[in-house]
Structure formats: C-alpha cells, structure tokens
Write a structure and sequence with these properties.
Structural class: alpha/beta
Number of helices: 7
Helix content: 25-40%
Strand content: 25-35%
Largest sheet: 7 strands, mixed
Radius of gyration: 20 Å
Length: about 290
C-alpha cells in the first residue's frame, strides 16, 4: 500500500486529522504522525479519522496516534479564536472565506439568525466584523457549550445570543410569544443565554433581517422555519448539497417551498461554496423575501 496516499491531512489548529488508507500498518501511521509533529511546530496532536461524518450533529470518530492526548482543538481564523472537540462537534476550516464574505454583508443594526451554528464560528465572525447582535441556534449540547466559550474567548459574550435546541420548537415558541407581527426591541446586553421557554419580545425579534442556514446534509430543508421568521426584505442564505449540474433543482425546491408558505422571493445569487466529493458541491443560494 503506497504511503503517499496518507500524505494529506486536515488541519484543525493544533490538531492534524489523517485519513489513512484502510490497510496502512500501525507502525507506519505512527511514523507518519511523528513526521507531521516534527515538521509542523504548531501541531501538537495527530488523530486518525475513523469513518465518515454522521447524522444531524455531524459527528466523526477519531483515534489518537501521536502527540498530546487531547481531542480539543484551538483554531484561529478571521481574527477570531475557537475551541471545540473534534469528535463531539462539527467544524469546517474550509468555510473560513464563506464566513468572512457573509460577515461583510451584515450591518451593525441588522438582526441576524444563524441556524445549525455548531460551535458558533459564523455568529462570532459576523459579530466580530459587523458589530451586530447575532442569534445562534444549534441542537448539539456540546457544540453550544463550546459556542459560549468561544463567545467569551472573543469578548463577544453580549453580542452572540444562544438559542439552544431544535429550531422547529424554537420557532414555535417565538411565534407564540408575540401577539402582533412587529419587530422586537433589541435584547438586553446581559442576555447571551436565553431560556427559550421564557422568551419575550424584549429579547428575541419576531422577524430577522438575515437568516443564514449552513445546513448539514438532511432531507428536511427547514425553509418552513426560515419563512416563519422572515418579513419583506429578509435575506436568506441557504446552503444545500448537490451534484454539479443539479443546481437548478435546488433553486426550484426553494421556490416551491416559498410558494407553499405564500412567500414571494427573488433569487439574488447562486454560488458554489466548496467541493465535498468528486462532482458534488456545497451550494449557497441567496434570496430575498419580497
């Protein structure tokens, strides 16, 4: 088995994650890991990736090979720092430019909801560069724990508001908390850990100016929840996965969902936001509610 196939690895700050060929010998894994540690002083740990990313929580399994025995990464990008557990949370360095681009589109006065936020890299980058207050939703409890830690590390504790749990339940709670279709007052500065069960319109907006949906690969589009929280002028950045040449099918799905919930929309941009496999891409569709 050629060793060259194992030369590539994913770098997550201080941790290198290697996807070794199936029949790669243990002693060769150790040797390759030691070479990584010697040639990259910033890398402190080498892990082997075991299997694929699984489920809505986007978890992977890794095995320690060399270096410090930890699975907690420390990663820096866009002037921000992030901590997260490689096995229990999802983080993609490949979306660094996406996060920077979206942050550049947000103004300080905008109300922003990020669904499927993970350990909050997108909410934190947006808050850091725009000064806006961002609402971060994630169902993974461990990811929310790290998200709060990351908000503190980046001195954004009062700028990133965490809405833990299933977005479907949260949307229902937001709607039931309002008696009229009006924008809420901004949240109080000390509200970075909102109890969804006790939400009031003084904390969370009824509608958002921007809704960002970096979805995992799921059958449910969750566009229903986005439309419930949108008003005229709301911009939605929707991520999906498809094969090259199938982009129009994603756009048609969005239009169909909009029609089902009696929303008129205008497509603003269709962007290839990265390749995830041969001929398979992450697609971002930007649209505005009319």
């Amino acid at each position: 088995m050629s060793k060259t196939r194992a030369r590539a690895f994913n770098l997550l700050g201080n941790i290198a994650v290697v996807n070794f060929p199936r029949k790669f010998r243990v002693k060769d894994k150790k040797k390759f890991a030691e070479e990584i540690l010697k040639s990259n002083k910033s890398i402190r740990t080498v892990l082997e990736k075991k299997g694929k990313i699984k489920g809505r929580l986007r978890k992977i399994s890794t095995q320690w090979i060399a270096g410090e025995k930890t699975k907690e990464a420390l990663y820096k990008e866009n002037g921000c720092v992030f901590r997260f557990n490689v096995d229990t949370t999802y983080f993609s360095p490949r979306l660094s430019n996406e996060r920077k681009e979206i942050a550049s589109l947000i103004r300080k006065t905008d109300s922003v909801l990020v669904m499927f936020a993970g350990v909050a890299p997108l909410p934190i980058v947006i808050a850091k560069h725009s000064g806006a207050r961002i609402f971060s939703n994630e169902i993974n409890r461990d990811a929310n724990k790290y998200g709060r830690l990351n908000a503190e590390l980046n001195k954004l504790k009062n700028k990133v508001i965490f809405l833990d749990g299933d977005i479907k339940r949260i949307v229902k709670k937001i709607i039931s908390s309002f008696h009229r279709p009006s924008l809420a007052h901004p949240p109080r500065r000390n509200q970075n850990n909102v109890n969804v069960e006790n939400m009031t319109e003084s904390i969370i907006p009824r509608y958002f100016d921007f809704i960002i949906m970096p979805r995992p690969q799921l059958k449910d589009s969750f566009l229903e929840q986005a439309f419930y929280l949108s008003k005229k002028g709301t911009k939605i950045y929707y991520y999906d996965f498809c094969r090259v040449g199938e982009e129009k099918e994603i756009v048609e799905k969005i239009k169909h969902e909009a029609g089902k919930f009696k929303k008129k929309i205008k497509i603003l941009n269709i962007k290839h936001a990265g390749e995830i496999a041969p001929y398979k891409i992450r697609l971002r569709v930007d649209f505005v509610v009319l």
